[in-house]
Amino acid sequence: MFVDKATITVSAGKGGNGAVAFHREKYVAAGGPDGGDGGRGGNIVLQVDEHMNTLMDFRYKRKYTAPNGGDGQGALKSGRDGEDLVIRVPRGTVVRDRETGAVIHDMSDPTPYILARGGRGGWGNKHFATPTRQVPSFAKPGMAGQRREVVLELKLLADVGLVGFPNVGKSTLLSAVSRARPKIADYHFTTLTPNLGVVWVSEGESYVMADIPGIIEGAAEGAGLGHDFLRHIERCRLLIHVVDASGSEGRDPAADFSAINEELKQYSPALAERPQIVAANKTDLDSEGETLQKFREYIAGLGLPLYEISAATGAGVRELSLAAAEMLQKLPPIPVFEEEYVEPEETPGAPEELTVRKEEGGLWLVEGPWLERLLGRVNFADSESRQYFDRSLRQSGLYDRLEDMGVMEGDTISMYDLEFEYRR
Known about the structure:
With 424 residues, this protein is α/β, with parallel strands linked by helices. The protein folds into three domains: 1-154, Spo0b-associated Gtp-binding Protein, Chain: A; 160-328, P-loop containing nucleotide triphosphate hydrolases (Rossmann fold, 3-Layer(aba) Sandwich); 348-424, GMP Synthetase, Chain A, domain 3. 20% of the residues lie in helices and 22% in strands. The protein is built from nine helices and 18 strands. It has a six-stranded mixed sheet with strand order 10-11-9-12-13-14, with helices on both faces. The chain has a five-stranded mixed sheet with strand order 3-1-8-5-6, with no helix packed on it. Strand 10 and strand 11 form a beta hairpin. The longest helix is centred in the middle third of the chain and has 15 residues, at 253-267. The relative contact order is 0.12.
């Protein structure tokens, strides 16, 4: 079964907790704290699999969770990092945020992509030892991993897309120019899923052609099968518009051509502007040539290249495939969808949502779910990101709360794996 759209939920692993431990060894006085750090939680990683051509694997399994990081131990032993969970997808899969529909990433190259990052491991009590706090009896918990709900959309990677009404001969044409063997029969909607074929041009030169299931009027609104598969021609650099030039089913070829282009325009204005070659098929069935002559005049008025072919007999097919190859040499490469998704800013929580406690030696521990999420989104190597972090803390009222509790200039504020000195 061909499945080209799926919704999944991914959860990266939680970081391991830091350990509270003290070094105890014979003849070693005052060994001190030696609690190790927790390990990083496993990431959710997307990887292109060249042998996959459908999202069928995601039809029944929709939740993916990476392993958590291991907890720290005594003797400064860090916890084991959680293993990354690799999810394999077909080349050309576009990942979108389910809520906003924004593109997160386009899996069009073999580079792995981290979709959800594992939480950082918590610090062991060794980190909190100071000359005035020599026996810290606390450690930090690990941070939660990212959780996302995403939509996977498969958009086939093909250079040329065959479009047209049902039963105009697209599958026959694909089988004539490549080794693809799609189902061919004399009735509408024979093709129920997109088919790909490699068209050989010359030694070292070829291109990929996609046969898209028949589009009908109203496809952009969901009529017929076109609505389901129009997304697969969004990447095509060139369209071959196949038309039954014989009018064998009593339809006007010019009207058919205009109707399909209108559907493409309604689905995507950019798609309607894609370069086209017109393939007037079934010319062997038009004995008198009147319908074909009218169609020639119509296409000439539009200024589009027209090739008269018979996919069934092979007449004109080679010339059409060579013309497509020549046009492809002048066209830009297959488009890649730009990333649109922007991580939403964390809304500052109320100060009472945070847990604040004072330890010995002027140390203040601040924890809370809102703060944990905020820390996971801040890049402390970037000045603007640090300013955003400071602004969020002030807006939350945390600093006012600390001052009410008696924080002093120079006291240490500890938030998960971040420490800084308090300055008014």
